[in-house]
Amino acid sequence: MGFVWATAVKDLRRRRRDPLALALWLGIPFSILVLISLVFGGAGGEVKPQARVLVADADGSLLSGFVAGALGQGPMAELIEVETVDEEEGRRRIDAGDGSALLLIPDGFGQAVLESRPTELTLLTNPSQRILPGIVEEVLSLLVDAGFYLQLVAGEPLAEIVAGPPEGANVFSDETVAAMSVRFNQLVSGVIGYLSPPRLGVAVEIEEQPSRPTLSLGPLFFQSLLFLAVLFMAQGMSDDFWLEREQGTLGRCLTLPHKVRALLAGKLLAVLVLIGALAGLGVGIGGLFYGFAAARLPLAVLWAAGAGAGLWLLFSLLQMYATSRRAGSILSNLVLFPLMFLGGSFFPFEAMPEWLAAIGRWTPNGAALEVFKSLLAGQPSPARLAAGVAVMAVAVGGGYLLAARRLRRGFALS
Amino acid sequence: MIEVEELRKQYGDLVAVDGISFTAAGGTVFGLLGPNGAGKTTTIGCISGLLEPTAGRVRVMGHDVLLEGHQARACLGVVPQELALYEDLSARENLLYWAAAYGLKGAELKRGIAAALEVTGLLDRATEPVKRFSGGMKRRLNFACGVVHRPRVLLLDEPTVGVDPQSRVRLQELVRDQAAAGTCVLYTTHYMEEAEALCDRLAIIDHGKLVAAGSLDELQALLGERDLLRLSGSFPPDRTPEALRGLDGVEVVQAEADSLIVAAPQASRLLPAVLAALAAVGAEVRETTMTRPSLETLFIKLTGKELRE
Q1: Which helix (H) or strand (E) is A130 found in, with range?
Q2: Which residue positions in chain A have pLDDT lower than 50?
Q3: Which of A77, A204, B123, B286 has the smallest set of CB atoms within 10 Å of its CB?
């Protein structure tokens, strides 16, 4: 055990002397995560897009103000931001892509509506956006419909209000206001039966959809990219057998009074510690940003370290069967990249076509990632967890024995 | 003590070591002398347990390296021909690893490392990364890593190859110190003068076979008091050996179309007769060199070739 420990400590010291490699293994996935967060906004959480509607109101009437104001009020305020501009500025800005749509309200719009004369609203949309201008168009269409029905129901009293008090008076007389109130009350009483409760019965049926994880992009990419770092580390550290062979230390180790399995165990221990430390750091940061339950973190870290050790053994075997260090590097990279892209370590499975994700879940890192995600953010069933641990134990144990055999009988002596 | 009996190592059709036997005792330096590719490193590999012999038996301090490999290797210290160091670690960290690998711990470990650094003159550079060391310093550290645990048997595989003269002398002193402390040292080299200066007993090996073994005196006695004459020029291959056969005490060691080596007692006196005999068969001699008896002349006599070939 002393030799195993001495070997692990020696390897960890050597890793500490190569901070650039550590920085690259961690830095590349971290950089990708930062870029993704920037692209999707903030920390990658749920972000609601907002349309900016430029309104050029040439009419300046009560009704035109009602249309412009109604666009960005109530629930629509979360989706639509209204900004008043003149027509020239509005056209210039919409041409420059600054805004989702430009609404042009012509002079005389309000009067035309009250007098039931044809009039026209113009909506210019930003061609570089697809969804937000569509929302604006739908909302405006509803407003136009509402205005039409309002004019039908209350056109006459509204026309009187818009026309203003009789000539020579500054305000409406009390009698006129009282008469208008009575007429509005009668109008509302007449239609209230249709509006509340609605006369049309609507039967709502909700179709049950298979439940999918409700995680947002940030945590999904975070988990995948943490495994990408694990994958990089496992592949990067597997090259060490070639380095030890070239610098003669591997041959010298074989003259020691220890079995080669002890040497391999020491190196494996160093890999476990290093990947465990990385996973601990990553999961800790992830816990802060994405709110993973603290109680789940230790098990997730252990799992990531074990998976990293298994992947390291896989890459080490490839390196040891290669005919040269260069061939080993090429071979391990040939395996690394498909595992990276297919195994959910770059693109989360949730972002892949289902058939591709199904294949990816059978890759070593993909299978390990699924258990890791369930440990971190889901509800892993004890049976699934036990099966995962058993598979990992067999993979690591088998890889260890094969690597020790190759090391002693072929690689170290060739 | 090292006991090697009929050791044979074969790679396919290639026989690297062909049935060699020798014994090296504690407190002595046993030299294994031979040109590159003679089988010295393979022999060291079989003794250290790195290679599995095809046939034969090797014992280290009475332990069979195959049957009791752990006990045999625990007695060994190995200094390989090529440097075997962790370049990114310091000298102290290298020694710490190799000493711990042999089971040293606590105060014994610290003492061993301090002593190894002291004797190799690396104490003041102990914390520097090895990659900053000169070639000679690396060689000394390579040696220190092999002796830090004070082994009873020390295997040194050409430890002075590529070393500057100053470091070479220092390394030779270190080897003598080890033997003086009772360690059995097996030292392979192809430097004749180094073997003459350092080794108590020697075995000459060529093409995997042991061609001679004994103390320096015993080996020189094999040669007798004969000098070695090296001639270059053009020599009719079929007639030259025949022409010299009639000269008393002259032995043809090697005859090529452009070179000739002969051994003869008091060669300076016989030189005119040798030249006359060669002229009689149409040989042309352009250059003549005479060498007094030495290990090198013995090697040439035994193997028919220069040691550095």
Answers
A1: none
A2: 43-47, 212-214
A3: A204
Say if B78 is an interface residue toward chain A (CB within 8 Å): yes
**A160-210 pLDDT per residue, tens:** 777 777 777 777 788 888 887 787 777 777 766 665 555 555 555 655 555
| Interface contact B100-A248, CB threshold 8 A | no
For residue B50, give how far its alpha carbon lies from the nearest alpha carbon of chain A (Å). Answer: 6
Q: Is A365 helix (H, G, I), strand (E, B) or coil?
A: helix
Interface probe, candidates B88, B158, B186, chain A, greatest A C-beta count within 10 A = B88
Cα→Cα distances A301→A113, A216, A265, A344, A384, Å? 68, 22, 20, 18, 17
Contact B98, B145 (CB under 8 A): yes
Our CA dihedral for A28, A30, A31, A36, rounded to 10 degrees, sits at 130
State the average pLDDT over residues B228-238. Answer: 88
A408 contacts in chain B (CB < 8 Å): none
Q: Give which of B208, B190, B252, B203 is closest to B226, Cα–Cα.
A: B252
Give me the amino acid identity at B281: V
| 0.95 surpassed by complex ipTM | no
Give CA A95 to chain center in angstroms.
31
Helix/strand/coil (H, E, C) string of chain B?
CEEEEEEEEEECCEEEEEEEEEEECCCCEEEEECCCCCCHHHHHHHHHCCCCCCEEEEEECCEECCCCHHHHHHCEEEECCCCCCCCCCEHHHHHHHHHHHCCCCHHHHHHHHHHHHHHCCCHHHCCCEHHHCCHHHHHHHHHHHHHCCCCCEEEEECCCCCCCHHHHHHHHHHHHHHHHCCCEEEEEECCHHHHHHHCCEEEEEECCEEEEEEEHHHHHHHHCCEEEEEEEEECCCCCHHHHHCCCCCCEEEEECCCEEEEEEECHHHHHHHHHHHHHHCCCEEEEEEEECCCHHHHHHHHHCCCCCC
Task: Kindly report the pTM of this predicted structure.
Answer: 0.69
